[in-house]
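Hey, can you fold this one?
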Amino acid sequence: MHEFELISEYFSKLALKNKASLNLNDDVFFDKKKGLVISIDTYNEGTHFLNFKNPSLVIKKVIRSSISDLVCKGVKPKFYFISGSGSANHFSNKNLIKISKSLLEEQNKYNIQLCGGDTTYTKKLNFSITVLGYSKKIIFRNKTLLKDDIYVTGNLGDSYIGLQILKNKLKVNKKNYEYFVNKYYKPDIQIDLTEKLLKFCNSSIDISDGLISDLEKLINRQKINYQINVKNIPISKPLKLLIKKKRFKKINTISNGDDYQVLFTANKKNFRIIKMISTKLGVKITKIGEILPSNKKSSIIDEKGNIIRAKNKGYIHQF
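Sure. Predicted structure:
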């Protein structure tokens, strides 16, 4: 079974009396009365990052990936806890100095503070990050409305290309190597947009597993569907040039996850305020589709107006 079936069958019933758990069907725990928002994520070597040859960059990736859960909910992250399990080789003095320095840089960048954690010995490295913030309001999943426009922030696909380069599945020049690998390890988290999202979003999620996969999680059990226009999906100039040079299909480069951009839906009447905030903050926000009634099938439209399928909707953990 996959991760969501596992949660639904074995754990959801344990949280029925806990409204703040959001039925274990959202990115966060949200206690509205206390204004408390919490998320937790686990990262395993070989699954969420290739290896630990560059501790400084791996730590940046896991921290940014973790705070994006709160950011997409419209909540500024404030505190974090980090637990690490690994060997003496992983946690050598040299690596620990790099880890500490990297954490400090991320704290200064995102105005977050370390509050605690745990360390244990294992042969295979993993990290668990808990992030905490305060808010009386969040943006939920599963609150998408019919005829909502679908938006994403930033660019998609750069991280996936970076991963392919690191796996030696794609050869590029030095300039492109540095650009795409940097995007893989250091995703652009839209921290400045955080609280502004509350002004116009009906529903939101961060793109961790993949655009299509996360869009379907955003909608979940709602009786609605979607239409996505590939030509409108934002990509960087380096990726655009690479797609042209390598003759890649755009849809197959932007639907693989690890982007950590915000995917959200909003009422059509909010188009102007979204455009204004985008311009004011210098944050790219792009409309890529719309929500359809249940009697119309979900579809992905390519640049020529044809209905296509994504080769990969996104990542899912199977057990």
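The longest strand covers residues 77-86. Let me know if you want another pass with a different chain boundary.
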